[in-house]
Amino acid sequence: MKILIIQTAFLGDVVLATALVEKLHTFYPEAQLDFLLRKGNEGLLKDHPLLRQVLIWNKQEGKYKSLMRLLSQIRAEKYDLVVNVQRFGATGFLTAFSGAKETVGFEKNPFSRLFTRRYVHDVKSGTHEVERNNMLIQSITNAIPAKPKLYPGQTDFAKVEQWKQEPFVCMAPTSVWFTKQYPQEQWVTLINSIDPKYKIYLLGSPADKQHCEEIMAQSTSTRVENLCGQLNLLQSAALMRDAVLNYVNDSGPMHLASALNAPTCAIYCSTVQRFGFGPLADFAEVVEREGPLYCRPCGLHGYKACPEGHFKCAREIRNEQLLAVLEKAAAVA
């Protein structure tokens, strides 16, 4: 059996879709599994032991040119099943005209009427995204979703070993969306109040380096190191795995932690856990503003600025809430 899984959205969405890879391999260990994602996220699945190949949608080639090239490549594979986790038209087009014997996806996809089977995707249902994704393959597996999983290689673990020589905490302070991002000055307060027995590593992409440099400049701690841009995605995950705790926003690094079962403190500002994208590690705590706020949640993804101008959902999170999670994580480490 040949199966293609499609998820061309953000980093975190790809990580969550790896739960389907785990589940399908468990039920069909001889199946050939392929994964389609967008360029920039392919590092997540480098040398993945359960995948035959990773297809890459490079929009920079020209959206439609690359789409037609991909369609030709997909049709040539003669897949038995295409599982489309993405809900936008481009991937729906690829799915509908893939030539696969069976195609499944969510009804929100504009091409879903052409799929063999389609399912309702409801972020208000209270279910986790891995459960919603699992619906797509439930009829050929079972109703119990697998957990997402990534596979850093030996070289990835070797790369980060130098930073594991003493107890450490990781922090990923940035997010694509401003209203998902815990404020810079509050990261500074957190860093300054963490027991100096812990080394603190700031994680992110090269684009996040300046933001984290500013946090370090405002901090009085001498135990902080900015690793932004020094590690690829799998290396970051390999480091997070052995942290006493990982402080993250509701963003990609939270899902990296889930995929390595790394202890997680997820800071929720404008979004809420009931949307179904929460942390999945065995030790995972969500910290958010105590008590309801009339404007929260203001959206599924967040905004470039607080629509109300006050950003109380983030600013009214107390530092003591975050420190309490570290104390609890240290007790079970």
Summarize the structure.
This protein has 333 residues and is an alpha/beta fold.
Topology:
Layout: E1 2-6, H1 11-27, E2 32-38, E3 53-57, H2 63-77, E4 81-84, H3 89-96, E5 102-106, E6 117-119, H4 129-134, H5 154-160, E7 168-172, H6 184-193, E8 199-202, H7 209-218, E9 224-226, H8 233-241, E10 245-249, H9 252-259, E11 264-268, E12 284-288, H10 312-315, H11 319-332
Parallel strand pairs: 1-2, 1-4, 2-3, 4-5, 5-6, 7-8, 7-10, 8-9, 10-11, 11-12
Helix pairs in contact: 1-9, 5-8, 6-7, 8-9
Folded structure, characterized:
This protein has 333 residues and is of the alpha/beta class. The protein folds into two domains: 2-140, Rossmann fold (3-Layer(aba) Sandwich), CATH 3.40.50; 154-332, Rossmann fold (3-Layer(aba) Sandwich). The chain is 32% helix and 17% strand. It contains eleven helices and twelve strands. Strands 3-2-1-4-5-6 form a six-stranded parallel sheet, with helices on both faces. The protein has a six-stranded parallel sheet with strand order 9-8-7-10-11-12, with helices on both faces. The longest helix has 17 residues, at 11-27. The protein starts with a strand and ends with a helix. One of its GO terms (biological process) is lipopolysaccharide core region biosynthetic process. This is Heptosyltransferase.
